[in-house]
């Protein structure tokens, strides 16, 4: 079985030499464990943070050990009660072809109900992040005008559509290519979208939301956050979900220059960590499952095929090569 190891800590943008694809023997599962053949694994922006040797909400990847992360696969041997060969499971040991997973860390998923890959995206971690970040953290209410950055990504594409489904007055998204902008407006039903590479975010946001915004869902940070603070209306709320614009920076970046506006407008900026919100999981799956079945909620997936292309998939995610969820597939 092959697995990806981190072999050196990236300084700035990760390079292929920071990683190695290594062989490891596959053993029968120990007591209480199952052996899973991974079919899809997730590559996510937060993994960049885990490549640094810093104290955070999640420990760094260890050098010369397999990296981990969300994955779905098929049980090929079981030494745990309740799991049989042929079951499909969601678990946390991605970045490898075969995973020996403790049964208590494996969740059965049904490929008949939804394609397996969706348990990593729209029905999984990124979908829940959008749902909890919008409805719980940002206290979204009907009639709000919502701006989301990283709007064509896994989280962002769901935030915008969920806001529309719950009666947003206007939904605006920003993304890094004209094709993505077209997808947001023509396929996902955003009211407006812009390519942040085509001009200052502040000006483009002002034009797209002349009456201001009530909610900002931040996936990007930097100039996007500053522009949003300028456009937020009185009592506006921002969910600070990610700041991908700075994950590869080597120096701390200055904050928004217009923070004083937070006072006069009585803004609330609040961070979100999806791990706090698994209590909403049942409600989330029920509501989002319904929207998916009715066709009201759409999702994108970008697949990179083959374990040997796992790191390329991750680097491609950081460069914006994905529309919707970026997934590494091991199905061929
Ligand atoms: P995405 O699917 O959104 O993929 C990342 C996207 O970021 C790329 O497609 C790219 O799109 C965009 N991007 C890359 N660099 C920049 C840049 N400099 N400026 C603007 N956009 C950039 O990933 P996810 O949906 O998984 O995650 C989105 C955000 O949410 C991330 O910041 C992530 O860290 C965060 N997150 C936070 C969680 C939490 O619990 N707090 C949980 C899950 C995700 P483009 O072409 O538009 O540039």
From TrEMBL:
SUPFAM superfamilies referenced in this protein's UniProt entry, alphabetically: GroES-like, NAD(P)-binding Rossmann-fold domains
Top-level taxonomic group: Bacteria
Pfam families cross-referenced by the UniProt entry: ADH_N_2, ADH_zinc_N
CDD domains recorded: PGDH
Annotated Enoyl reductase (ER) domain residues: 14-328
Oxidoreductase recorded as keyword: yes
InterPro entries to which the protein is assigned, alphabetical: ADH-like_C, ADH_N_2, ER, GroES-like_sf, MDR_fam, NAD(P)-bd_dom_sf
Transmembrane segments: none
Molecular functions (GO terms): oxidoreductase activity, acting on the CH-CH group of donors, NAD or NADP as acceptor
Protein keywords: Oxidoreductase
Name by which UniProt lists this protein: NADP-dependent oxidoreductase
């Amino acid at each position: 079985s092959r697995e990806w190891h981190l072999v050196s800590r990236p300084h700035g943008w990760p390079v292929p030499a920071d990683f190695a694809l290594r062989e490891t023997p596959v053993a029968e599962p120990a007591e209480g464990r199952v052996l899973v053949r991974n079919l899809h694994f997730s590559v996510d922006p937060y993994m960049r943070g885990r490549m640094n040797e810093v104290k955070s909400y999640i420990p760094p990847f260890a050098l010369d050990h397999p990296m981990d992360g969300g994955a779905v696969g098929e049980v090929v041997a079981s030494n745990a009660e309740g799991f049989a060969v042929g079951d499909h499971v969601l678990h946390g040991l991605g970045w490898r072809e075969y995973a020996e997973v403790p049964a208590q860390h494996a969740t059965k998923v049904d490929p008949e109900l939804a394609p397996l890959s969706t348990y990593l995206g729209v029905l999984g971690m990124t979908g829940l992040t959008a749902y909890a970040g919008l409805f719980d953290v940002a206290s979204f209410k009907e009639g709000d005008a919502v701006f989301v950055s990283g709007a064509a990504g896994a989280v962002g594409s769901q935030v915008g559509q969920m806001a529309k489904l719950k009666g947003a007055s206007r939904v605006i998204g920003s993304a890094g290519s004209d094709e993505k902008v077209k997808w947001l407006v023509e396929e996902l039903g955003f009211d407006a979208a812009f390519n942040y590479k085509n001009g200052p975010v502040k000006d483009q946001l002002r034009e797209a939301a002349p009456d201001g915004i009530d909610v900002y869902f931040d996936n990007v940070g930097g100039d996007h956050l500053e522009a949003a603070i300028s456009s937020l209306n009185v009592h506006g709320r921002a969910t600070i979900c990610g700041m991908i614009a700075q994950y590869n920076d080597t120096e701390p970046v200055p904050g928004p220059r217009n923070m004083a506006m937070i006072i006069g407008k009585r803004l609330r900026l609040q961070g979100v960590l999806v791990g706090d919100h698994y209590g909403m999981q049942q409600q989330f799956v029920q509501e989002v499952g319904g929207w998916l079945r009715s066709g009201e909620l759409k999702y994108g997936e970008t697949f990179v095929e083959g374990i040997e292309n796992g790191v390329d998939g991750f680097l491609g995610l950081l460069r914006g090569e994905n529309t919707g969820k970026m997934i590494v597939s091991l199905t061929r």
